[in-house]
Every structure is written in C-alpha cells, then in structure tokens.
Amino acid sequence: QVQLEESGGGLVQPGGSLRLSCAAFGFPLDFYALGWSRQSPGKKREGVSCISSRDSSTYYADSVKGRFTISRDTAKNTVYLQMIDLKPEDTAVYYCANDAGSRGQGTQVTVSS
Asked: Distances from the Cα of 62 to the Cαs of 7, 32, 65, in angstroms?
C-alpha cells in the first residue's frame, strides 16, 4: 500500500529553521517524482518544491527560493524539506505527494513570535 507520512512541523520564530520529513511506504523513493505543497486557511494550495525521480533535478516556488532545500535519502526512503529564514507567511499545512496522486496527511508549520 502506497503511503506518505510527513513529520517535523511545529512552531518556530521568524528567522528560524525546520526540517520536514516525508517517509514513503509501498514504493521505492526514486520511482516517482516527489514534491511539497502547502495550504493555509483561506488560500489556494501552493506548490513549494519538487524533486525529479530521474535525475534529482529540483524546482522551487519563487516565494521559497534560496530558503528551502529539497533532498531525498533513498536508503531511508525519505524526502526532506529543509527550511531556513522562515517567515510568518510560510505558516501553513505542508503536504508531500508523489506524481501518481498519493499524498500525506500534512504537517503544520507555524511561524510566529
């Protein structure tokens, strides 16, 4: 059974850092492209970052370029989203998904002083 489980969210002050993890079950990590999106109340879901299955090429939304880094560890079958210099506007539920349509339940990130 294909499953994605996010973790690592929490409350952090502006300027702080968090690392989100997305553990994949039921498929090899490099079989699909994987990505992170986020959604905050009243806003549309926003694609944040993704990593290709073929060559590990990456994509970042303009809003997070230079602050977020996506990576994957095939030995742990886990994708990470390292976030630095967090801003209040980064507050959202963060989801990971593969390009076959599977998505996790999300992890809350709150950036507030």
From this structure: 24, 23, 5
